[in-house]
Amino acid sequence: AGQVQEIDNPQLGDAEEDSELAKPGEKEGRRNSMQKQSLVWKNTFWQGDIDSFHDDVIRRHQQFIPFLNPRTPGKLTPYTVVLHGPAGVGKTTLAKKCMLDWTDCNLSPTVRYAFYLSCKELSRMGPCSFAELISKDWPELQDDIPSILAQAQRILFVVDGLDELKVPPGALIQDICGDWEQQKPVPVLLGSLLKRKMLPKATLLVTTRPRALRDLQLLVQQPIYIRVEGFLESDRRAYFLRHFGDEDQAMRAFELMRSNAALFQLGSAPAVCGIVCTTLKLQMEKGEDPAPTCLTSTGLFLRFLCSQFPQGAQLWGALRALSLLAAQGLWAQMSVLHGEDLESAGVQESDLRLFLDRDILRQDRVSKGCYSFIHLSFQQFLTALFYALEKEEEDRDGHAWDIGDVQKLLSREERLKNPDLIQVGRFLFGLANEKRVTELEATFGCRMSPEIKQELLRCKANLHANKPLSMTDLKEVLCCLYESQEEELAKVVVAPLKKISINLTNTSEMMHCSFSLKQCRDLEKVSLQVAKGVFLENYVDFEPDIEFERCTYVTLPSWAQQDLRSLRLWTDFCSLFSSNSNLKFLEVKQSFLSDSSVRILCDHITRSTCHLQKVEIKNVSPDTAYRDFCLAFIGKRTLTHLTLEGHIEWERTMLLLLCDLLRNHKCNLQYLRLGGHCATSEQWVDFFYVLKANQSLRHLHLSASVLLDEGAKLLYKTMTHPKHFLQMLSLENCRLTEASCKDLAAVLVVSQQLTHLCLAKNPIGDTGVKFLCEGLSYPECKLQALVLQQCSITKRGCRYLSEALQEACSLTNLDLSLNQIARGLWILCQALENPNCNLKHLRLKTYETNLEIKKLLEEVKEKNPKLTIDCNASGATAPPCCDFFC
Predict the structure, then answer these.
(1) Which of 79, 193, 598, 617 lies 20 to 30 angstroms, CA to CA, from 170?
(2) Coil, helix or strand for 548?
């Protein structure tokens, strides 16, 4: 339904009582004139617009339009209402219906006026006065304009299609005026009206596509935004039922459209719903399988176009003229074309007659010289066809059309200026499909360009440029490849990809990834994010009497049917991990999964054909996902690196599963990172005990966990065991104190394996440093890297470290960043200049503003050229502690 957004309470100001300023004869004349206008407006609705479906859509949205339901009887409030939504969902139809209701004599005892300003037409006009602008189509009102404008509170101005107004940036806010008799450029007059400099008490109704909303916000004051959504799912279902007549056929066709999220979204436009119904019904009547047609929008539109004409019709010239007109309009950002546009393209009306007869192209009933396409998406499809058709000599040498080439069409710069080109590029890839080419050539007797595939490959050559694609660019590439349904083309395009990062926000993106990435045999790493709403199982309550696994598809509620479709696509996507032997690294982060989707992914991970070596699971829901992943990793021989981070409420269960993983004779895990756990000391006991028996684990990171001194003591006891193999230990932000460091010092002396230690973000203080330095002072200590970032260390702690470094301890890397060591740096520098100091890398708090310290550090570097001092580790710019281990 229509939705009201950002509704501000407008200042009512001095709303005037309606007063009849006109003389009795003039009043009746104006009423007759407005009734005449109403008849014309009714005739401007497209054929089929005024039926029960459109009436329902209009009524659903009209309830949100406040000026049709005045708050104060007898008064009119100057509202600015903005109807926004995608192309073809009924914004113009709704606006015209509002005009009819506004001027309806039966609804209002006084004469009210409505003026329709089409931005498509305004773009073609030269300078004029505002009075001339609104009376140009109604010369009989010209003498009455002064008295009409004097009653601005009775006037409704509809500004239709603001997104199609072709003006330079800033033109609508410059030189605005309030004089309706003054000659001005049309954009200035329109801007003056929208900013309420002109006729501030008039009511404004603006329609636009979403892309113009940002600019509109700079113009209008206290607007009420209403999103027009066109056909809802229930409307689409009812439309299919009425079109097909047969319920089984209708529901089969409806489900096919719904299986393609992009096509289903387009179906909110009644015209697209009509195209889908017409196409699929014809196929069913012929006994053909309609399923392949709905895989892509290109396939659907191509089949619709070809179904309108008999095969071998030899309509190449007519098709070329239509596609040229579509391309010229799209590049000029025009949905309505005029006679002069046809003339500039060298197109005759006779060339278009076949398409006019079939309602593919439509002629305005009032302005016979105006043409528009059945829907913007079909204009985009025909524009792609313009590029795909083989050009004749007259095309190459004839008219100088303002149409970019393929390279320009697919360039980011042009798409930013004209977003409608994005879908054209996708359709163009769709027309690179060999089967579709054959069908087009057989129907229209045309020849498709043999160079089009090479053109497309050249445009996607930045995949080979050794520079990472942005996620937006990658999604667009994958979308285009899916639209082509050409596996060989996909193989060539994605061949260079070694790693990808993808954020799945809908099922369409899942389909696109599945199709293309299966062809990417050299892919090594996938970083995956799944947005909330892709899977619904854990976020929408099931009906209590429904068993999800057993009920049939048709008995499921709508949301559950959607979830089943998502899971089927997810299954296909996850097969990537068990079919690509080169894929070694999977990262799943910030993801909203479901129980079923996790089980599907884990099923593919456990297969022998899955060769994942490194898996990182970070901040995923539901919590049970971590349990399922742990189960999947038990006995996974190829797995060497595992990260599990996030808020987990069942630590004991997960730790027990990790124990099973580490105990398994097939375990080759070398790196384990656990973060965000709240396990108690007792719950850590079994886990630390298993570490004694495991001979593969070398790196253990327990970050942001409530380990505490008591839990750490259990770990240290394990590390004193002669068979422990840990080389790197990180206990970052585990709430450890100086007491923990006393036990840790003993480990430093006994352990012959531990070379890297991180205690960052633990308040161990100077006393903790003292204990650590006691351990470092023993020649048996092998520690090379020590991270003490943000550990509450002061000057006194620096003294202990200085003494240890001067005694030739094993440390080569030391991180003291984010500590207030102050004058302790001078003490530390004494050790750095000592020849016994083995330190090669020191990380400190930033001292860019302290010239004295900068000079001191420069002197140290001169005396110890082998030492690297990093002073850029402060605040938000501080690098991760784990980087210091490398």
Answers:
(1) 79
(2) coil
Task: State pLDDT tens for residues 393-415.
Answer: 555 444 556 899 998 999 989 99
Residue 206's beta-bridge partner residues?
Answer: 82, 159
Alpha carbon distance 170, 163 (integer Å): 14
The one-letter code for the residue type at 24 is P
- The tokens for 86 are 């995608």
HEC sequence for 230-248 = CCCHHHHHHHHHHHHCCHH
Cα within 13 Å of Cα(530), Cβ side: 28
d(CA 654, CA 16): 71
Per-residue pLDDT tens digits for 61-102:
888 888 887 554 555 568 999 999 999 999 999 999 999 989
How far is 134 from 139, CA to CA, in rounded Å?
Answer: 10
- Identify the residue whose tokens are 């009524």: 59
Q: Note the Cα 459 to chain centre separation in Å.
A: 23
54 Rama sector, left if φ>0, alpha if ψ -120 to 50, beta otherwise: alpha
Q: Where are the alpha helices (DSSP H) in 431-547?
A: 434-444, 452-459, 471-484, 487-494, 507-517
Highest mean pLDDT (candidates 534-538, 799-803, 857-861)? 799-803
> Mind listing the pLDDT tens digit for each residue in 822-863?
789 999 999 999 999 999 999 997 665 678 888 888 899 899
Cis peptide before 622 (omega within 30 of 0): yes
* Number of Cβ atoms within 10 Å of the Cβ of 673: 18
- Cβ partners under 8 Å of residue 286, min gap 6: none
The sign of the torsion formed by the CA atoms of 859, 864, 865, 867 equals negative
Which letter does DSSP use for residue 724 in this model?
A: -
The span from the CA of 753 to the CA of 724, in Å, is 8
Provide the mean pLDDT of the chain: 86
According to the 3-state scheme, what is the secondary structure of 61-88?
HHCCCHHHCCCCCCECCCCEEEEECCCC
Measure the CA–CA gap between 777 and 770, rounded to whole angstroms. 11
Which residue type is seen at 623?
Answer: D
| The residue type at 274 | G
Is 815 within 8 Å of 789 (Cβ atoms)? Answer: yes
User: Cα separations (Å) of 208 from 215, 498, 556, 834?
Assistant: 11, 42, 37, 73
Q: Six-digit token pair at 745?
A: 């010092």
Using CA atoms, how far apart are residues 634 and 798, in angstroms rounded to an integer?
45
Q: DSSP string of 549-583? A: TTS-GGGS-HHHHHHHHHHHHHHHHHHHHHH-TT-
Indicate if the pLDDT at residue 879 is higher than 60: no
Q: What residues contact residue 59 under an 8 Å CB cut-off, 6+ apart?
A: none
Q: Which helix (H) or strand (E) holds 38?
A: helix 24-43
Q: Are 240 and 250 contacting, i.e. CB atoms less than 8 angstroms apart? A: yes
pLDDT band with cut points at 50, 70 and 90 for residue 2? very low
Residues 454-481: tens digit of each pLDDT: 888 887 665 555 566 788 888 999 999 9
Beta-carbon contacts of 52 under 8 Å, excluding residues fewer than 6 positions away, are: none
Alpha carbon distance 760, 791 (integer Å): 6
SS3 for 843-856 is ECCCCCCCHHHHHH
| Percentage with pLDDT > 70 across the chain | 85
Q: At 809, is the secondary structure helix, strand, or coil?
A: coil
What is the dihedral sign for C-alpha 429, 509, 423, 365?
positive
Alpha-helix residue ranges (DSSP H) falling in 664-764: 681-693, 708-719, 738-750
Polymer length of the chain: 886
Q: If 0-12 CB within 10 Å is exposed, 13-18 middle and 19+ buried, where does residue 611 land? A: middle
